[in-house]
Amino acid sequence: MNVTGDTGQNMVIGEFAEGSAAQVVFRGKGGVLEIGPNVIFRSGTINFRGDGQRVVLGGDNVLLGEIHLSGNSSQVEIGRGTKMNSAVWMNLGEANDRVTIGQDCLFANVRFRTSDSHPIYDDTNGERINPSKPITVGNKVWIAEDVLILKGAIIEDGSAIGARSLVAGRIPSKCIAVGSPAKVVRQNIRWEEKFPR
Fold first, then answer.
1. What's the rounded Cα separation, in Å, for the pair 141 and 159?
2. Who wins on pLDDT, 59 or 1?
3. β-bridge mates for residue 69, sequence order
């Protein structure tokens, strides 16, 4: 693990497992990276760009990709046993943004965006019409290749999201959802990580 920035005003709790090649960059203060046991971060960057940010990795994870926390007090939590087969990209663009991922999930080349990165206002009254929103992924969720998860998305336990889908709303538990926007095409499913031998 290569850590750059002010380590006196930020904190790393724990260590990545052997075989990791993560870059951790602190640009603000009060950042915390909490690494559970047996976490492999094969390659990529965790980029703390603001103040009071936190990343919690539950343990027994295999991770790969980019996590960018831009807004102050933003937070990422990844539950125990979650794995990434190809690079995942997260952008938490605004203050207090949050991405919460449950246990035993499986991802491939997924992109997470908690905000649009640029504010849009109603020109008649000045009200902002595109605030950021948290993203929540439950336990044992499978997200296939090239899926985009947008602000406010909620994917409940046990579901599977098909390749190249876009998730912007709520996906109920134990279902398959596909498309742009993703829609439920099958309910009462159970998926396994490997085929039986």
1. 5
2. 59
3. 48, 92
**What are the structure tokens assigned to 157, written together?**
């336990």
The pLDDT tens digits for 82-134 are 999 999 999 999 999 999 999 999 999 999 999 998 899 999 999 999 999 99
Confidence (pTM): 0.93
What are the phi and psi torsion angles at 145 (to 5°)? -65, 145
- Start-to-end CA distance of the chain, whole Å, equals 37
Identify the CATH number of the domain defined by range 2-108+130-187.
2.160.10.10
- Checking if the pLDDT of 197 tops 60, the result is no
Rounded-to-integer distance, Cα 17 and Cα 26, Å: 21
Under 8 Å CB-to-CB from 29, ≥6 apart: which residues? 6, 9, 10, 51, 52
Q: Write the pLDDT tens digit of every residue in 132-158.
A: 999 999 999 999 999 999 999 999 999
Q: What token pair was written down for 69? A: 């926390």
Distance of alpha carbon 68 from alpha carbon 119, whole angstroms:
18
Would you say 50 and 74 are in contact if contact means Cβ atoms under 8 Å apart? yes
- For residues 74 and 92, the answer to whether their CB atoms sit within 8 Å is yes
Burial bucket for residue 128 (CB in 10 Å: 0-12, 13-18, 19+) = exposed
Residue type, 117: S
